[in-house]
Amino acid sequence: MTSTTTAAAERLSATTLLRFATAGSVDDGKSTLVGRLLHDSKSVLADQLEAVEHASRSRGQEAPDLALLTDGLRAEREQGITIDVAYRYFATARRRFILADTPGHVQYTRNMVTGASTAELTVILVDARNGVVEQTRRHAAIAALLRVPHVVLAVNKMDLVGYEEPVFARIAEEFTAYAGELGVPEITAIPISALAGDNVVEASAHMDWYGGPTVLEHLETVPVSHDLTSCHARLPVQYVIRPQTAEHPDYRGYAGQIAAGTFRVGQEVTVLPSGRTSRISGIDLLGEPVDVAWTPQSVTLLLEDDIDVSRGDLIVPSGDAPATTQDVEATVCHVADQRLTVGQRVLLKHTTRTVKAIVKEIPSRLTLDDLSQHPDPQRLVANDIGTVRVRTAEPLALDSYADSRRTGSFLLIDPADGTTLAAGMAGDSFATAKAAAAVDDDEGWDF
After folding, report:
1. Which residues, in sequence order, are CB contacts of 408 under 8 Å at separation 6+?
2. Residue 71 has what pLDDT?
3. Which residue from 170, 131, 126 is spatially nearest to 151, judged by alpha carbons?
4. Using one digit for the tens of pLDDT, what is the confidence trace for 343-361?
5. Residue 366: its pLDDT value, please?
6. Strand, helix or coil at 212?
7. In DSSP terms, which residues pair with 279 in a beta bridge?
8. DSSP state of 321
9. Strand 276-285 and strand 288-290: pairing?
10. Dihedral sign, CA of 421, 233, 300, 241?
């Protein structure tokens, strides 16, 4: 490796990483925005751009359709919509980025949940001609539910409304008020034209009334924190390693990826849900012993005592253990075509643990128009956001999602065919009042 290459690698490794997602209604211009970001930030290879130009010419377009840089599925290109989550990786001199371009069609809202679940920032696009619509509100609600700390409102297609400031101001005010009620901590509104490139990478010459950052400037400078080492330490056990060889006759290690926090040799730990305690006698990282390990490293912990530990258990510091419970109350985003109903038998997957469960109550469903809670709906359908109470067959050690996105989340799964029904976030979700409704227990899996 040359000194120039080494210096470049060092500069790149020194930059921070931002994970962000894009969302918006159909035809709001998400893929065009992403394509413009990649193109104008010089993150597109020559052969990629040539392929896009060729595909655009074959469709009778004079200028290259930058949306084709992300809409890679054949069905996406034929219909002109995004269907699947498209991940893109690019970098500038100031920061590295992992981008999830999520679908806008209401049918694929579940994909937005996937793309935004690990994002630190979400860009929500709005067509300046249409303003805030139902899908805009749904995406804002999901961003708030997933505790995405930064939201950018990109008011797109400003060129089609004459770059008029009152149009932008009205939309920004309406969205900010709505997202603020959901508890979104930070909202930045930027007027753009993804097609023309206004305020995407370069400042617009048509909107001198706007003095804020471009989209890329904001992405490069927004503060992000990846320091999970000071959080509650959690290690979901994925695999028990027992080689039982002549070299390692008594080796028993508990392997997994540290979800949060830091573990040290000599630290007293508790294994949940059993509650048994021991001390860490050793930590193996990539086959080598270390004294300390932190998130997101994949490690093997060795304990002083020979206690029962298996896949799905959670190893935590003894002085910082979450409570175990069989009664889970959470906000869920329903992502399946089939309904979720009171009394339904499900599987609940939390970290590496999967247990049988039953839906005991669905106290409320969120009404997106006014953020009111519809009490006792008895069922949730695709794209609904609601509160559920679930009873599990075995105790679970759940953190609040507000404290930990990794150990405070779970999935509800159909035990018949393995379909993911809902994505759940334990504890309180929005800064809105929740209606409580009593629902009679159904027969079935009554734990």
Report:
1. 398, 399, 400, 401, 402, 425, 426, 427
2. 52
3. 126
4. 999 999 999 999 999 999 9
5. 86
6. coil
7. 268
8. P
9. antiparallel
10. negative
